[in-house]
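Reviewer 2 asked us to include a model.

Predict the structure of this chain.
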Amino acid sequence: MLKVLPKQTASMHTRDRVRLDADIYRPDADGEFPVLLMRQPYGRAIASTVVYAHPTWYAAHGYIVVIQDVRGRGTSEGEFQLFTHEITDGEDAVNWAANLPSSNGKVGMYGFSYQGMTQLYAAVNQPSALTTICPAMIGYDLYTDWAYEGGAFCLQTNLAWAIQLATESARLRGDKTAYQALFAASRNLPLTNLEILQQLAPDSFYHEWLAHSQPDAYWEKLSPKQHLQSVDLPMFHIGGWFDTYLRGTLHLYQDMAARSTTPQHLLVGPWAHLPWGRKVGEIDFGIKAASPVDKMQVRWFDQFLKGENTGLLDESPVCLFEMGSNLWRTFSNLPTPTDKSYFLSTSGLASIREDSGTLTTQSSELSTHDYLVHDPWRPVPALGGHAAIPAGVFERSHIDCRCDILTYTSEPLVENLHLAGDVVAKISCTADQPSYDLCAVLSEVYPDGCVYNLTQGYVHCRDGASNISTTIQLQPTCVQIAKGNALRLSLSAACFPAYAMNSGTGAVISSDNLRDAQIITLTVNCGGEGNSQILLPDCCGESFGIESQNRRHK
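Predicted model (structure tokens):
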């Protein structure tokens, strides 16, 4: 480990003469070093230390570390417009960083969330100095991976983020009144006053995102996916099983792995968006769940920025944390499991009695129905998963006891069940309103009656009268379900405030259409032709590789 010089502050100018400010951390040593660049909107002193080691740690490993405020944030000049300037500003920042004193001319980037997005945008114009990136927890397609899920607006995460950015904007422009009101709102999300951002931050991106509820040209222009098709860089992709943007991480990895000529590695831990620790919600996944990312990134940068043979290229490129066994599993690519169907069966009282609805591996020829009534005055509350705040695993038996949730539970498993990949629910149902939502939660039921969520999904439906199979794509997962425990599928017509509630005609996005919200009755078909079912990615036949934490993450 090298000694590190005191932090320096330096500025650059973009091509349109906007000053961007950065903190620079340098090794106290002679020679030339690669540059690690992070571009972020939250005040550069934070430097994403909520999940990463401090920049000084990276500098001590022989890197010049640059943490830059993006346009209009921190002390940088210009107007902040969400993602709008990051392609050209990112390219300019890479070229500037490559030419810093003592730089060897090679630049790598790291960071998560917005800092992950700035990496993708910086790569679009393919600046020659940008050698590798490590995007974590990103939206590849901003509509499907970030703002909306299954056509439903991700209310809680989008609202919290919009208020956070608007609060900082009010502080930067010296608007004390707006700052105090927004800060208070950030500590108690104004879910009963959905107009607060319109009142206090009329220029927030939030309003555009609500207005573009379909995947139209707005999203195509804004999303990095549309601009990255000719980019081919070594990428280390990082995600979490309970991160709300896991879809984006996996979509980017799958796209790059399919077409790239350069190494693409993927790591998914049992983490929410932050922090990346061993405890997520109410479950402690053990010491191996603590983040290995910093050490892995140094190895990655040593390989591609210093030209060292770290052994990375001889290792399996996909590393997934299997919850339950609490071990890291390695694969040559994403697992290709066999779909295992569990069919829904009921006596018609699945909303009343937990022994009425069952999951079975054999479909019943007898057609039966369950009825699910959604009351907008008391919507089913969100609890954990990937879309709620806080995210993670929680005991939910008290939620499943509600009469506006249908539960279907299997017999106790006779052997351990390994799942790795996509979970899909296909629910045959109709509604008495033009529109409805469906939330599906897959949980593990313990012999003592405790119920812990594993993964969930949500879909916004627009044709309530049609008797069709509604497909709900649940969050991908990797989990071992222990012998003696059971599986449970819980269905509801809301998951509030994680997702905007459905009024019966569409999403509730203001107090006005909350006032007009209707009671919705769903009829769910079980048994018979087109039986409702859940498809699980059974990896019992998959060859799991297990590598020691010490060797892979040294």
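The chain has 14 helices and 26 strands. The radius of gyration is 24 Å. We have added this to the supplementary material.
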